[in-house]
Amino acid sequence: MIAPAVVYIIALVGVPFFLAIYYSLSDVTVGSVGMKFIGFDNFRYIVGDPTFLRSLKNTFIFAFVSNLLVVVLAKILALALYRDFRGKWIVRFLILLPWVAPISLGSIGWLWILDSIYSVINWSLRALHLVGPNTWPIWLGDPQLAMISIITVHTWRLLPLATIIILAGLTSIPQDIYEAAAVDGAGFFRQLFQITLPLVLPIMLVAVLFGVVFAFTDMIVIYVLTRGGPYDMTQVLASYAFFTGIDGGALGTGSAIALFLFPVLAASAILLLRVARRAEVG
């Protein structure tokens, strides 16, 4: 019964994973007809590469800040959507829209919004006299603004999924608990911190796990908006592995960079699932 699932996992996960390990220990390049075993030379090379170290640092900043924003904003949105009001289904549809729309399409839209000449943000700020005539932010050309931009777009993309997951957790809480708390005189904040958050915590950690995996592995936003620039200042491990292994042709080095993601993701998944299990049991 599980044979098709096992074959599927081996074909789509196991084969590429072990192929990446094999490549990382060789000098294989794009277009080469042979390869030579070079041991851990690729790993020794990348740990001394300044761009790799910057990409590793950017990966953690990108994942931590975007997930923090997603969890806080998703919790606020889920609490707002949990209440009944007219037009709630339209609001839910609009919130879910960024997730169901193709990410490449959304990123191209953001590329126009953050354009150095046609940026609607800059023109709006100037029309509202919030910036001076000599001020014109280059959102994707300044290293700090570029990092803020890609974190903002990534947060915009993941927010609908996290909101739906947390909303599902809120609807699973029995109303009897809130009614009993109200009878005891518990206000909004007491119900929030003593009932809602503890009961929703396990499913919130599932949303965080999805967010961490996407933040570490997804490079579409960076590829479309900055391509790791300016000067590799927004490069993360996923994008740097792609540009090195595919665009640069160094498959062995690119595979070694990509494999650095595996222990980080495995440790994050184990830690979050253990915390979720403890919260659920408690």
In words, what does this structure look like?
There is one protein chain. The model has no long low-confidence stretch (mean pLDDT about 85). The chain has 13 helices and no strands. It is mostly helical. The longest helix is centred in the N-terminal third of the chain and has 33 residues.
What's the helix and strand layout?
Blueprint lengths: L2 H22 L16 H7 L2 H33 L5 H13 L2 H11 L6 H8 L15 H29 L3 H9 L4 H30 L2 H6 L11 H11 L3 H9 L1 H21 L1
Helix pairs in contact: 1-12, 2-12, 3-7, 3-9, 4-7, 7-9, 9-13, 11-12
Number of strands: 0
> Treating each run of at least 4 consecutive H or I residues as one helix, how many helices?
13
Estimate percent helicity: over 70%
Low-confidence stretches: none
The rounded Rg comes to: 23 Å
- Distance between termini? 35 Å
Shape: globular
Please provide the ordered H/E string of secondary-structure elements. Answer: HHHHHHHHHHHHH
**What percent of residues are in strands?**
under 5%
